[in-house]
Amino acid sequence: MGEYRQFIFEKQTAIVDKGTISCAAPSNIALVKYWGKRPVQLPENPSISFTLDTCHTKTTLHYQKRTAQADTFEFELFFEGVLKPTFKPKVQNFFERIVDYVPFIKEYSFVIETENTFPHSSGIASSASGMSALAFCVMELEQRLCPATPASYRIQKTSFLARLGSGSACRSIEGPVTIWGAHPQIPESSDAYAVPFSGELHANFKQYQDTILLIDKGEKQVSSSVGHDLMHGHPFAKERFKQATQNLGKLTEILTSGDVDAFITIVESEALTLHAMMMTSLPYFILMKPHTLSVIQKVWQYRQETGSKLCFTLDAGANVHLLYPANEKESVKEFIVAELVAYCQKGQYICDEIGFGAKMIE
Ligand code: 2P0
Question: Which residues line ligand 1 (CB under 6 A)?
Answer without folding.
Answer: 30, 33-35, 37, 41, 47, 125, 127, 166-168, 224-225, 228, 274, 315-316
